[in-house]
Amino acid sequence: MGAVTPLGNTVQEFWDGLVAGRSGIAPMTLCDPSAYPCQIAGEVKGFDPGGYVNPREARRMARFSQLALASAQMAVDDSGLDLEREDHERIGVLLGTGIGSLPTTQEICQEMLSKGAMKINPFFIPMILPNMASANVARIFGAKGYNSTVITACAASNQAIGEASEAIRRGVVDIVLTGGTEASISELGLSGFCILKALSTRNEEPDKASRPFDAGRDGFVPAEGSAILILESLEHALDRGATILAEVAGFGTSCDAFHAVQPDETGEGAARAIRWALADAETPPETIDYINAHGTSTQLNDAIETMAIKTVFGERAYKVPISSTKSMVGHALGGAGALEAVACVKSILDGVIHPTVNQERPDPSCDLDYVPNVARQQRVDVVLSNSFGFGGQNTCTVFRRYAE
Q1: Share above pLDDT 90 across residues of the chain, in percent, rounded to a whole number
Q2: In whole angstroms, what is the distance from residue 310 CA to residue 317 CA?
Q3: pLDDT band at residue 41 using 50, 70 and 90 as cut-offs
Q4: What is the pLDDT of residues 314-359, one digit of tens each?
Q5: How far apart are CA 231 and CA 168, in angstroms?
Q6: pLDDT tens-place string over residues 166-206
Q7: b/e for 9-45, b at 16 or more Cβ within 10 A?
Q8: What angle is formed at CA 352 by the lines to CA 356 and CA 323, rounded to 5 degrees?
Q9: How buried is 88 (Cβ within 10 angstroms: 0-12 exposed, 13-18 middle, 19+ buried)?
Q10: Of 79, 123, 258, 338, which cross-links 230 as Cys (Cβ 3.0–4.6 Å)?
Q11: What is the average pLDDT score of the chain?
Q12: In terms of residue numbers, what domain contains 96?
């Protein structure tokens, strides 16, 4: 695995921050937020793309592609793969992203208006297209096999991981670099989300602004980041003597078919995705040891996700630990599910469930065990990871401890 996050630019830094309950949210620096109600973000700090791709290449890529390349390089290094010895036609790339590059879009539009239409950066289009993170990763690493991009908003990278596992099941690839990336912090993005009243305005206390499932929640905190996981067929991993971290056991995806931005108020769409993920993994609800929640810190999402979990798990919903990674890093949109997948795998490996921070005021509509404020030591064998996006697009993935 590899990760570039608001809590650190390696998997271990990210995980250590989560377990410590440390927030990576701070005053926004990637753009001037002074004209907007939300002025805080979960930004990647101290990132130098030159450490992962030559500076000339980096200048021709948007930040979301740069972050993906960095986390992909870390993941390849961590996996022990010698890509030169692999059949490149059997290596795929499948990433999720929600938007592409809003910062570049804003910058080039301003450039066009000030300098003229024929004076803009000639790399504008290939910089902003959402598929370019997958394309750039494939090009740099020579992955000539199955390639795709999932753009199902905030469910994108969770779904990408599930779809990558399906590509391996189908036998079209042996290895997939999968996960997601997002880097959309910009005035243009702020305008869009602020006008929807979706963002937190708790600017005076950035570290307390993201508070999923808490009665005082007032919106999500925008964030950026990338995480990449190396998926392989079991046969291929065993043949090369790989260290297997966990198994992608199953996934499910559904649509609310309800509203452009609001989740189905009954929670049925999310519940369907959870049920289908459990069915695909051939694991009943009682085997789930931990749920990594979508947990955005918005009024509707947190209450409806709680409702969906109760619908599927019944009374056992009150006994399953649940936590939100977004409470510490904010909402990385299409990249969020990949960051959370890393947290799920680390929970299995380390026997620790990271907390949901900023749990101060109980909400009667959110009455489950959200692992409040302090990490919990517990053996974790099977994890459910939830991601729900605008348009009512829901994806859930089941990760399981690997047993020989």
Answers
A1: 97
A2: 5
A3: very high
A4: 999 999 999 999 999 999 999 999 999 999 999 999 999 999 999 9
A5: 8
A6: 999 999 999 999 999 999 999 999 999 999 999 999 999 99
A7: bbbeebbebbbebebbbeebebbebeebebbbbbbbe
A8: 25
A9: middle
A10: 79
A11: 97
A12: 2-400
The pLDDT-based confidence of 368 (bands split at 50, 70, 90) is very high
**Residues 33, 39: contact at Cβ < 8 Å?**
yes
Length of the chain (residues): 404
Q: What is the CATH number of the domain that holds 177?
A: 3.40.47.10
Task: Give how many domains the chain has, as a whole number.
Answer: 1
Any idea which of 15-29, 135-149, 251-265, 299-313 has the lowest mean pLDDT?
Answer: 251-265
Q: Is 282 left (phi over 0), alpha (psi -120 to 50) or beta?
A: left
- What's the pLDDT band for 404 if we cut at 50, 70, 90? confident
Whether 194 is a known active-site residue: answer: no
* 3 state SS for the chain: CEEEECCECCHHHHHHHHHHCCCCEEECCCCCCCCCCCCEEECCCCCCHHHCCCHHHHHCCCHHHHHHHHHHHHHHHHHCCCHHHCCHHHEEEEEECCCCCHHHHHHHHHHHHHHCHHHCCCCHHHHHCCCHHHHHHHHHHCCCCCEEEECCHHHHHHHHHHHHHHHHHHCCCCEEEEEEEECCCCHHHHHHHHHCCCECCCCCCHHHCCCCCCCCCCCECEECEEEEEEEECHHHHHHCCCCCCCEEEEEEEEECCCCCCCCCCCCHHHHHHHHHHHHHCCCCHHHCCEEECCCCCCHHHHHHHHHHHHHHHHHHHHHCCEECCHHHHCECHHHHHHHHHHHHHHHHHHCEECCECCCCCCECCECCCCCECCCEECCCCEEEEEEEECCCEEEEEEEECCCC
- pLDDT over 90 at 72, yes or no: yes
The answer to whether 356 and 327 are in contact (CB under 8 A) is yes
Two tokens, residue 346: 């680390």
In the set 154, 194, 344, 396, the catalytic residue is 154
pLDDT at 261: 87
